[in-house]
Backbone:
């Protein structure tokens, strides 16, 4: 196994095409194909599945590429510091469910470190992709929640993926809703919790989880409740628009980030004793980087804003 073979495999996974990767690497396609085949023979499994539409990573291949990226990144850092002395930017990547506080913490992190030495990636995405990104080392950390319903299933997935969950803080369950919603106007006056019967008149907004659209992967707690009206969406901006446009609501931690979402929304306590635990996943036995630790510190600042 050579460093060049690792770089070749990374290039192929990025382009999803042997031909396109060969062009980017300035080598012939037969040479690239031969190098990949030799690497696969050495490690004992296929990294890629070939088809007329290109190539795709196998499950083992995705895990292997995660380690390969780490090796190549560390080599590039050593080369930049001690050999070529050109300087190279380190990368930090985090994946998360759709939490505005997690994005705001990321913003604080970027502002603290700046762009001179680092390149940053933030992936606000589906639950399965949060897990996959950390498993494959595309992201160092993944921010998500556990509760009594999904804990056993997701902890099994974490264990099978070589990941571990670290809790940060516990939250009550809140209804995230536009202040213009008639229900919000009423409850903001009385301070009473919201019941599911009262929510029946409004559509529940849920993040679509694609092919992993099961209750265990839902980003919203109470995922097994039989909602009379439901709309699935893919991003937080759409959710905010639907909150205003159709008087929709979603269930959340109750942590508000007016810096990002504005002051037109509120969090109303749901009439339930259920809780959710916000935390992060990382590779088991891995050492969290200095910048990763700083990101965790920024998220923990929201602990004081938690409403139980």
Residues:
């Amino acid at each position: 196994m050579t460093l060049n073979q690792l770089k070749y495999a990374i290039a192929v996974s990025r382009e999803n095409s042997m031909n396109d990767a060969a062009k980017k690497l300035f080598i012939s396609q037969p040479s690239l194909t031969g190098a990949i085949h030799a690497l696969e023979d050495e490690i004992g499994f296929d990294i890629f599945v070939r088809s007329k539409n290109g190539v795709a990573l196998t499950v083992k291949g995705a895990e292997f590429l995660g380690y390969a990226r780490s090796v190549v990144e560390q080599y590039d850092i050593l080369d930049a510091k001690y050999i070529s002395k050109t300087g190279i930017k380190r990368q930090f990547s985090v994946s998360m469910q759709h939490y505005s506080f997690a994005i705001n913490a990321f913003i604080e992190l970027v502002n603290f470190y700046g762009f001179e030495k680092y390149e940053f990636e933030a992936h606000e995405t589906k639950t399965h992709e949060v897990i996959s990104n950390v498993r494959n080392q595309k992201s160092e950390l993944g921010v998500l929640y556990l509760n009594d319903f999904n804990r056993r299933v997701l902890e099994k997935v974490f264990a099978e993926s070589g990941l571990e969950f670290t809790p940060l803080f516990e939250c009550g369950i809140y209804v995230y809703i536009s202040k213009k919603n008639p229900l919000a106007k009423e409850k903001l006056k009385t301070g009473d919790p919201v019941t599911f019967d009262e929510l029946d008149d409004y559509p529940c907004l849920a993040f679509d989880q694609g092919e992993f659209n099961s209750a265990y992967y839902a980003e919203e707690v109470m995922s097994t409740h039989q909602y009379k009206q439901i709309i699935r969406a893919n991003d937080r901006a759409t959710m905010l628009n639907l909150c205003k446009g159709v008087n929709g609501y979603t269930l959340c931690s109750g942590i508000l980030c007016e810096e990002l979402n504005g002051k037109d929304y509120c969090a109303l306590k749901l009439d339930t004793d259920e809780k959710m635990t916000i935390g992060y996943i990382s590779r088991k036995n891995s050492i969290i980087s200095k910048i990763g630790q700083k990101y965790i510190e920024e998220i923990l600042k929201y602990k004081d804003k938690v409403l139980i």
Summary: The mean pLDDT is 91. The chain has three domains: 3-83, 90-168+277-305, 174-276. The longest helix spans residues 59-83.
